[in-house]
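Dear H.,

Thanks for agreeing to be a second pair of eyes. The structure we're designing against is below in token form, covering all 107 positions.
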């Protein structure tokens, strides 16, 4: 395959993954605001949206990078390795979108 075709496929897949991650991050953030407002009897604080970044920043993003490295190191089948790495890329996209864009919304 021509190198530019491979790049376009990868860029398209990355864009799709980031779009799904962004959608998930927005819904998670809204859910966190609603649940914390209920706990406080309707009082809202801006940092409620930041609570949604915890899972993405502490679990998803770092673990997806570590997982991708472990998969690349120890997986012998190239198709399996590719699919698992794309899954790690998906998790990383969700984690980074959750972390970055929800914390930027605060300012």
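And this is the sequence the design step returned. I haven't edited it by hand at all.
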């Amino acid at each position: 395959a021509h190198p530019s075709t491979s790049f376009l496929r990868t860029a398209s897949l990355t864009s799709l993954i980031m779009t799904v991650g962004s959608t998930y991050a927005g819904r998670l953030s809204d859910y966190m605001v609603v649940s914390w407002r209920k706990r406080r009897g309707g009082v809202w604080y801006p940092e409620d949206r930041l609570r949604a970044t915890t899972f993405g920043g502490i679990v998803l993003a770092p673990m997806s990078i570590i997982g991708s490295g472990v998969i690349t190191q120890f997986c012998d089948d190239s198709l399996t390795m590719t699919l698992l790495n794309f899954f790690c890329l998906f998790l990383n996209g969700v984690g980074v979108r959750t972390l970055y864009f929800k914390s930027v919304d605060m300012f």
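Two observations from my side: The CA atoms of residues 32 and 51 lie 7 Å apart. The chain has a mean pLDDT of 79.

Warmly,
E.
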